[in-house]
Amino acid sequence: MAVTRGQRWRMAFLALALVVTGLLSAGVVWVVQGGLDDFVRRKLIAELERQTDVRAEIDDLRVHLFSTSAEAGRIACFLPGDAQPFFTADRLTAEINVESLWRQAFSLRHLTLDRPALNLTFDDRGINLARIRLPERRRTLPAEADEPLVDEVLEGSRIVIRDGTVQVAAATYGVDGQIDHFALFGRTLDKRTLRVETGFDAATVTVTAGDGRRRTLNEARLRLTGTVTKEAAEIDTLLLTTPLGEVTAAGRVRWPDNVPRYEGNAYVTLDLAATSQTLLAGLPLTGRVQMPVRVAGDAEQIALEGNLEPLTGRLAGVTVSGLTAQYVLDTPFGRFPNRAEGDVKAGRVTFAGYALDSLSAHVAVSPTAVDITGATARVMGGRLQGQMRLAYPAETRERSQARFNLTGFDVGQVARLTPLPARVLTGRGNVQLEAAWPGLEALRASGRVQATLTGEAVPPEGSPETAPLPLTAEVRAGLTPGVVEVESLVARVGEGVLTVSGRYGWRAREVNATLDYHTPELAQAQTLAKWLGFNIPALTTQTEDARLELRGAGDVTGTIAGSLKAPTLTGTASVGGIYVNDQRIGRAAVKFEASPTTVTLTEASLVQPDGGCIVAGFNGSWTESQPTQVNLKAYELKLASLGAILQTIPATNALGDRLTDLGGRADGEFNLTGLPNLAALTGGLGSRDWLKAAEQIRGDGTLALTTTKTPLGELRRGEARVSFRDDEWVLEGLVARFPAGVISGQGRYQPSAGAYDVALQSNGLDAAAVAQTFGRTDLPLAGVIRFDVSSRSTVSQVLSNHLDFAFKATSETLTIGNDTFRDVRLSAASDPDGEKARLTLTAQYRDFAYRADATVTYLDPDGELALLVESQFDFNQTPLAPVLSIFDVGPQNLNGEITGRLRLAGPLYAVDPVTDEGGFTTGKLALTGDFSALRLVVPLGELGAVQDNYVIVNDGPLQFSVSDRALEFRNFRLRDERGETTSLALAGKLGLTGGRDTVTAEGKVDLKLLRGFSKRITSRGELTIKATLGGSLLNPRLTGYTDIDDFGLRITDVPLALENGGGRILFNANRAQIETLTADAGGGKVEVTGGAIFERLSDVRWRFGLRAENVRVKYPRDIRSLADGDLVLQGNRSLQVLSGVVRIKRAEYTTNTDLATLVRTQFIGLGGVGSSLQTRARRATFTTLDVRVEAPDTLFIRNNIADVVGAASLRLSGSIDDPDVSGRVLITRGQLEFRNDRFEVTRGVVVIPEGPAGTTFYDIQAEATIQGYRIIVGLTGTADNFNPILRSEPNLPQSSILSLLATGTLPPPEIANTTTAAQQANVSAATTLLSELLTERIEEQTGRLFGINRFQIDPLLVGRGGDPTARLTVGRRITKDLSVTFSTNLATAEEQIILIEYRLRNNVSIIGIRDQRGNFGFDVRVTKRF
Question: Translocation and assembly module TamB C-terminal domain: from which residue to which, for each copy (predicted)?
Answer without folding.
Answer: 1076-1425
